[in-house]
Amino acid sequence: MASTEIARQAGEGARAVPLAGHVGFDSMPDQLVNKSVNHGFCFNILCVGETGLGKSTLMDTLFNTKFEGEPTQHNQPGVTLKSNTYELQESNVRLKLTVVNTVGFGDQINKEDSYKSIVEFIDAQFEAYLQEELKIKRTLHSYHDTRIHACLYFIAPTGHSLKSLDLVTMKKLDSKVNIIPIVAKSDAISKSELAKFKIKITSELVSNGVQIYQFPTDDESVAEINSTMNDAAPCREECVQSSTVSQLTLQEACSVGKGL
Ligand SMILES: Nc1nc2c(ncn2[C@@H]2O[C@H](COP(=O)(O)OP(=O)(O)OP(=O)(O)O)[C@@H](O)[C@H]2O)c(=O)[nH]1
Ligand SMILES: [Mg+2]
């Protein structure tokens, strides 16, 4: 209804407030986008893999940034987790990125407990979020959610089969995080070996009942690309996707550097 019409109905001398812009429910998507962009995005990645498999290199490539961090020595007494949070910005989109790396994974002679510190870390983040949710006065909008969105699991390019450590760790983690297995340094083996290796890994994961992340195919607009991604798993190298980061950003990320 035009403002003059409103003034006429409201009577003489009524104040008519002119509209600042278009009003209608067709502006709702824009409102949601503006709200999300203003608030910024939060994404937490857990990189699990043996020392020197290229975890830091992949993160640097994916986010086109040089993150701090020194290479780890192979003489760590146990597995620890190192978490770093960065504020990134690409055009007007802000991303609060938390990268959690395993330190000393696979370096011990007795690897029986290697998965424990990772499981404990993931559980601690769930617990922290639960405690925030349980508060009478919750501040979830400003709370830094540190729960892991995606776990990139780096598999050594042996060309043979999965190590017991990999199977045990993935099995322990699969009910807690979205696992995206990645064959690290896949340029170290030939294409035919790589194809066989991927088949072998897939069959081992299936026979051991390890659930890896499946890209959703119920949304028609992304069903085709996502089923291609599902078929490509475990990713040859740096193909990363998660349920939380936007499809587009991730598809771009996947094509960075080494690609599918
Ligand atoms: N051939 C090959 N080398 C790689 C690849 N990615 C990383 N590297 C090399 O592997 C070495 C170790 O890479 P990093 O990214 O530091 O590995 P990391 O897993 O972060 O190592 P830590 O943090 O010490 O556990 C570096 O010299 C990299 O240049 C790859 O895809 N192929
Ligand atoms: Mg590193």
Explain how this protein is built.
With 260 residues, the protein is an alpha/beta fold. The protein has one domain: P-loop containing nucleotide triphosphate hydrolases (Rossmann fold). 37% of the residues lie in helices and 16% in strands. A five-stranded mixed β-sheet has the order 2-3-1-4-5, sandwiched between helices. Helix 4 runs parallel beside helix 5. The termini are far apart. Magnesium ion binds next to helix 3.
The percent of residues in helical segments reads 25-40%
Mean pLDDT: 83
CATH topology: Rossmann fold
Radius of gyration: 23 Å
- Straight-line N-to-C gap: 54 Å
- Total number of strands: 5
Short description:
InterPro entries: G_SEPTIN_dom, P-loop_NTPase, Septin. The chain is built from eight helices and five strands; from the N terminus they run H-H-E-H-E-E-H-E-H-E-H-H-H.
Explain the layout of strands and helices.
Blueprint: H1 3-10, H2 28-39, E1 41-48, H3 55-62, E2 80-90, E3 93-103, H4 114-134, E4 150-155, H5 164-173, E5 179-183, H6 191-207, H7 220-232, H8 247-254
Helix pairs in contact: 4-5
Key descriptive features of the protein:
5 strands, alpha/beta, P-loop_NTPase, Rossmann fold, disordered C terminus, 260 residues, 5-stranded mixed sheet
